[in-house]
Every structure is written in C-alpha cells, then in structure tokens.
Amino acid sequence: MNSLVLAAAVFIIDGEVNVTDFKKSKSVQRAAAQFLQDAPPQFKGFIEEIGFRPMRDLDHIKFRMTQPINPDKPGEPLVTLKGRFKPKRIHSSWAKNQDKTAIKQLKIAGKTAYAGNINSPMFALESSRVIQAGYRPMVEQALKGTLPPLRALPPFLRDSKAWLRFRSTSQARKLILKQQEASPLAEIHEIQVKGWLKADKLHAKMRIRARSPEAASGIQMMVSLGLLNSNHPSSMKLGRAMKFRVQGSTLSIDFKMKLNELTALRPPPAPAPGRGGPKIITVEPKNDKRKLQKRPSAPPPTQFGPQGGGFRPPTRQP
Known about the structure:
By secondary structure, this protein is α+β, with helices and mostly antiparallel strands. It has helices at residues 2-8, 19-22, 26-38, 41-49, 54-57, 87-97, 136-144, 170-179, 213-228, 233-240, 259-264, and strands spanning 10-18, 58-68, 76-83, 104-108, 111-115, 122-125, 130-134, 162-168, 188-198, 201-210, 242-247, 250-258, 281-283, 291-292. The chain is built from 11 helices and 14 strands.
C-alpha cells in the first residue's frame, strides 16, 4: 500500500502554445533570433543538419509531464511538435553519418524514430506534420495512442493562445506535509496560467486554487512581499507587474509587461554556501549528528546528431 501511495505522489504538468500566433510579433521574432544566435554550437549544428527552421516550420507545441515527488525517480515528459518538417532530409542526414554518430534509427508502431544511448531523449516522426519527442516509454504510448487521458480543461483555459496547468495529487500533498509541515506547496491544489500578446506586451492571467481562503491570502503575501522586498532589480520589477486578488480559496494574478523587458530579466544569484538554501538531510547517525546528502555528479552528455556534433541533451538517470 505504501508503494502505491508513493507512486501516486506526483505533480502533473501540461500545456500548449500556439506558435503561429506568437511568431507574428516582431518582439518574438527578435527574441527567437537572439536565442538562436546565443544557442550552443551543438544545437545550431543539429537543427541545421535536420533542416529544421523553427520560426518557419513550427506551428504548435503541446507538452505534458508527470513528475514524481521522489527525487530518485525521473519525470516522464512528452513534447508534441506540429508544423512542416522534412522527414526525407532527416533520414538522408542520418544515413550519411550513421557510422559516425551514436544515434540509431528504429521503428516504433511503424514510425521512424531516432534514439541515442539508453535513458537519453529521442524523437519520432509521426508524420511530416507531427514529431513526438521525449523518453521512449512516453513516445511509444503517443505513437500507439495509449497515453493516459488528462483531466478536461477548465473554461478558464479553453481557447487560449498559450496555457500551462500544474496540479498535485492528494498523495503528493500528504507527503509534502509529512516532510515539511509549513511548505506552501502543500497548500496548492492547482495552478492555471494563460497568456497572450497584445502589441509588444505579454499579458497573463493566473489562478491558484488553494486549500482554504487563509492559504490563498498567505500565498499572496509570500509571493508579493518576496518579490518586492528581494532587493534584486529583476524580482522587484516582476513584482510590480503583478496585481493580486483573493476570492475565497482562489488567488488570481494579472500580469503585464513588455516582452523585451521580460526577456531582459535575470534571476537573482544563488545564496552563498552556508547562507540560506535548502538542506536535504537523509542520515541521522548516533550522537544526533546529521550528514547532508551529496548531489550525484551529472553523467557526461550523450552525442546527439549526425557526425557526433549535434545537440547534446541531458541524460536521464535510470
């Protein structure tokens, strides 16, 4: 029974972006051009090799992910790309360099897929209009049409140009409260966000469903005061762009900011060692002395792309 509870202790994340609508904006075009200019050479080489032009070929992005509470268990992401792709160019590029790359070609549900080493991300060409990307179990389910259904969208998110939903299971909230009684994450049932562009500004509306009106008010104070009193320019600017409203157990947030100002924001620096930050304690030996768990070193990147010079995504821990 305990293993069943732990297996259900997850966060569920899904969302969609209508790229066609956003890429009409000159601000988005400039941001995308800057991103591609600053991207690692491996990524630029990979998209050039497969003939992918993001601003021309991509129309729609849909994603979903189940993230377990247990940090030792990896999440299960799936990204569905819709647009105009060139399967023949991808196949030809791989065939010319198959002896020089770690990527292997395989068939899944009759569709051609490309995968690297074990536990590395992969992608499959469902058609010239659809690409499924992620780890193999989720990609296989997508191609076979056996993905578990997600909860229906609430009216608040329907027909949105871009939306994101984050929700936790009751088992996850119980486990969080058991580990940290005062954690605000245990007070949240669901977060719903939708966004759109108007002229050069990004508009967004957020709804946070909490356990009680007191929890909703507490989250509002934590977010607003945390940003405005941070003494970090980007955090303070972000806080001033938000308007809060509590209605019962729901916290609503309205956000508006110029896109070029938003992309210029920078996160605050990480706290210095020994001066804040979470500490994960896993061992409690004799004499009541505790040892901190050490983070495992990251595995080397996996080669991804013809000639071994393509994009190198992170390798997932088995």
